[in-house]
TrEMBL record:
Family matches, as PANTHER family: 3-OXOACYL-(ACYL-CARRIER-PROTEIN) REDUCTASE (AFU_ORTHOLOGUE AFUA_6G11210), SHORT-CHAIN DEHYDROGENASE_REDUCTASE FAMILY PROTEIN
Name of the molecule in the record: Diacetyl reductase [(S)-acetoin forming]
Lineage: Bacteria, Bacillati, Bacillota, Bacilli, Bacillales
Chemical reaction(s) catalysed: (S)-acetoin + NAD(+) = diacetyl + NADH + H(+)
Organism from which the protein derives: Salinicoccus hispanicus
GO molecular function ontology, one term from the record: diacetyl reductase ((S)-acetoin forming) (NAD+) activity
Length: 255
């Protein structure tokens, strides 16, 4: 039996990288998947690939910095599929490895709007839906090893991801008796298109962070992260709640 048979899932940032791999694996395991991204062309391609493989998917144009678009994403999914069981908050962008002495207010806000506020707003909307409807549900947040230590990116990215760890733990704890589970994944360095979101790279920050990146045994593939997202999104993880699963090939085990 497919692991997500009968489930409806939203995956944000699903036009590329880990989001794409998660959307495809969820669909392969029986879920109806909303492929949400502000890159609509990319989202449509992923939805088409899923449907060609016999799955069910719908591309949706969503900018996670826009509250109206986030809320519409969730309302439309429930209207069209009659249900929403799994929300994967995966959309994210990198900073330019800036340390605090170099970060601008504008860059800080830009990173937080996508990586943190967008996640909180989607979680708030879906949790209220589940609570009001007295339904159970699962949230999976793509965080980062940069959300667990200070050495993997700049100050804005690290702080934005540390905040999602707190969002994950707090929400998992608060609604644990209501059948709502919330977990995160902390991937290490994974081969995706995230580099294209890096603007104005700091030589100083890159040099400092690069020292720890050099300790990573290897880079990961998006499909390896998708397997963790499948575990956390499915009933196989029914007793796992309010925690973060590191998936980094052993990179951060050594320090
Ligand atoms: N690649 C890596 O080494 C790591 C990435 N991560 C996290 O994994 C998540 C996925 O990133 P990747 O697959 O690596 O990157 P990616 O760049 O391949 O995919 C990110 C997707 O998010 C979308 N996106 C960006 N801003 C958006 C917005 N405002 N609204 C809607 N969609 C938006 C992009 O269009 C893209 O399709 C991110 O949260 C990232 O921070 C975490 C650890 C390591
Ligand atoms: C992009 C990112 O989060 C890492 C850990 O490389």
């Amino acid at each position: 039996m497919a692991k997500l048979e009968g489930k409806v899932a939203i995956v944000t940032g699903a036009a590329s990288g880990m989001g794409r791999a998660i959307a495809k694996l969820y669909a392969k395991e029986g879920a109806k998947v909303v492929v949400a991204d502000f890159n609509m062309e990319g989202a449509e391609t992923v939805a088409k690939e899923i449907m060609e493989d016999g799955g069910t998917a719908k591309a949706m144009s969503v900018n996670v910095t826009d509250i109206d678009q986030i809320e519409k994403m969730i309302d439309t999914t429930i209207d069209e599929y009659g249900e929403l069981n799994i929300l994967v908050n995966n959309a994210g962008i990198m900073d330019g490895f800036e340390p605090v002495g170099e970060i601008t207010d504008e860059k800080w806000d830009q990173i937080f709007d996508v990586n943190t506020k967008g996640v909180m707003r989607a979680m708030r909307k879906v949790v209220n839906y589940w609570m009001n409807a007295e339904k159970e549900g699962v949230i999976v947040n793509t965080i980062s090893t940069g959300g667990l230590n200070g050495a993997h990116a700049g100050v804005a990215y690290g702080a934005s991801k540390h905040a999602v760890v707190a969002l994950t733990k707090n929400t998992g704890f608060m609604y644990a008796k209501n059948g709502i589970r919330v977990n995160g994944i902390a991937p290490g360095a994974v081969e995706t298109n995230i580099g294209s979101s890096m603007k104005g790279v700091s030589d100083f920050g890159m040099q400092r962070a690069g020292m720890t990146h050099g300790l990573s045994p290897r880079t990961g593939q998006s499909e390896e992260i998708a397997e963790a997202a499948l575990f956390l999104g499915s009933d196989a993880s029914s007793f796992v709640n309010g925690t973060v699963l590191t998936v980094d090939g052993g990179w951060t085990a050594g320090f």
